[in-house]
């Protein structure tokens, strides 16, 4: 195992003025807390973070990143808490370790292929600091290097698939090709063992056919370069099995047809020399048409730059030659890591950095300029995925939603039935309202109840199409059911005031231009067919009283307020009040107080009563006008009285203010009239309250 001094030597190559003591401290700390933990290989667990730190140091990353490499598993695998890390190593390292830990805790959504892309995007989005992503990739690289120690074939396969689908594309995206190639090869070996073996055997045969092929070709190339006076490093290497496999799939060819299994790399000092070398090669060897690619003029998305050409080589075999500068080579291998350069411990951004990397440049600028991690987070997220938020179910599944989506949108995205019955949400472990707008990385638990149903008010804050459609559809079905039920109850009520038994056959619905009995009930419930006409159509003597039918009040059951039954806005009746129902066309039944002055204008109303058996959890809002003394503490006192009585304020407004008094309009949520009485009595005992009136 690498010692802390050896690790320090590696970091010093890039960062000569690094602070040694902090690294030594981290080394000792990680060794101690990992203690006797073992890896699958049987070696001490601590060897893993040390290796991760070594690779990071070799990539030339800063000392903070290397220290984070040493500590990257302590939150996940030991009893150390973030506060402790921050205390010992400072906020930057604690932040990075937490970031890596967060990435590790997310389950890879293996069942859903379409989630893979989302997942990658998410990793990018929450890797608020690009170093978090780099550390995570190196962590995975080392785990792949030691994958052969994992005994379960299934587990090896699962880890390999995850690597191919998630980490390889991420490494490619930030241009860390050396890491990408290596991870790919191990993963390919574990996911496609027989294909891997076949390709390896073929490579072996090619090697045996001409032992010195690579050496001889290099010698020939050197000869022509020397003649042209070009100083270049030349190397040759076999392509990795996985890239051959991909090529075979891409072009549907057998391995025999792949002619550039061995690629040669020519590295020169300047861009001009790249084109010079290209010219020399093209004059000396025969070109394979259609194989030339200029990634210097047009770099790949991940900023890979190089010239590629295939020629019939000196050994009369096709060879691919890649020509690039040292700088291009470093970027090709190390990607984003190549963009770090150091001067007295400071992270510097290279001036010649191409614009395709501007998002990383911006990121680094933000990192440098801001000591505030939250700002870094916001900026980073804005940079990358402006229109999306990524949230998680408690089991770690990823849900991607448009920005501005709420907990209800999330619920519908999981399943229509969950949306239709959601009653609340726990976001990151805390209770939150269904209206809450979700943020990146939120873990959302939806609480459902079989008694809950979508509310028309949800339509105002949901933003996804699915939620909107589901809510509309549900309300339509619910509306139909409720109005039909109300109509039925009203017809039964009419019957109860006569000597007739309720009998559907006595109802001549066709006379009311309805094609079915249920349509007839629906139209009555909706107030489209006046109840008086229904009564007149029955075979009984005319009554003189046209406005009421019955002395016994009707008891309405199985209705949730808001669809067929409404509480009047004018008098706000609450449970326990004496009430009366007015049928309004289209709206259904509106419940008023018995003595509400608005009832004068209503043609048809019926006596109704509360269903006292029902545990009405429906809280009711009453409006009060309270006059309080103009004193600073008055507000606090009355809000305190209201809440200590178990009621809550939903709205408060200062109507009028004078030197002595405030006139307040306060909407209070109470359970019933008894509860309201209690709250009012308590308020009246308060010295700061001058008067109270229910409106
Ligand atoms: Mn690890």
Structural notes for this entry:
The chain folds into 4 domains: 4-195, Hypothetical protein af1432 (Orthogonal Bundle), CATH 1.10.3210; 196-338, Beta Polymerase, domain 2 (2-Layer Sandwich); 473-615, no CATH class; 619-694, Alpha-Beta Plaits (2-Layer Sandwich), CATH 3.30.70. The relative contact order is 0.05. By secondary structure, it is of the alpha+beta class. The longest helix has 32 residues, at 465-496. 45% of the residues lie in helices and 17% in strands. The chain contains 25 helices and 22 strands. Helix 10 (153-173) packs antiparallel against helix 11. The strands form 6 sheets. Strands 1, 2, 3, 4, 5 and 6 form a 6-stranded mixed β-sheet that branches. Strands 14-18-16-17-15 form a 5-stranded mixed β-sheet, covered by helices on one side. A 4-stranded antiparallel β-sheet has the order 20-21-19-22. Manganese (II) ion (MN) binds next to loops.
Give a topology summary.
Elements: H1 4-12, H2 20-34, H3 47-58, H4 63-71, H5 74-77, H6 82-89, H7 91-105, H8 115-126, H9 130-145, H10 153-173, H11 177-191, H12 193-209, H13 213-227, E1 233-238, H14 241-250, E2 262-268, H15 271-284, E3 286-287, E4 293-294, E5 307-312, E6 318-325, H16 326-334, E7 340-343, E8 346-349, H17 358-369, H18 373-384, E9 388-392, E10 398-402, H19 407-414, H20 416-421, E11 422-427, E12 430-432, E13 444-448, H21 465-496, H22 517-525, H23 531-537, E14 554-555, E15 565-567, E16 579-584, E17 588-593, E18 605-609, E19 620-629, H24 632-644, E20 648-657, E21 661-670, H25 673-684, E22 689-694
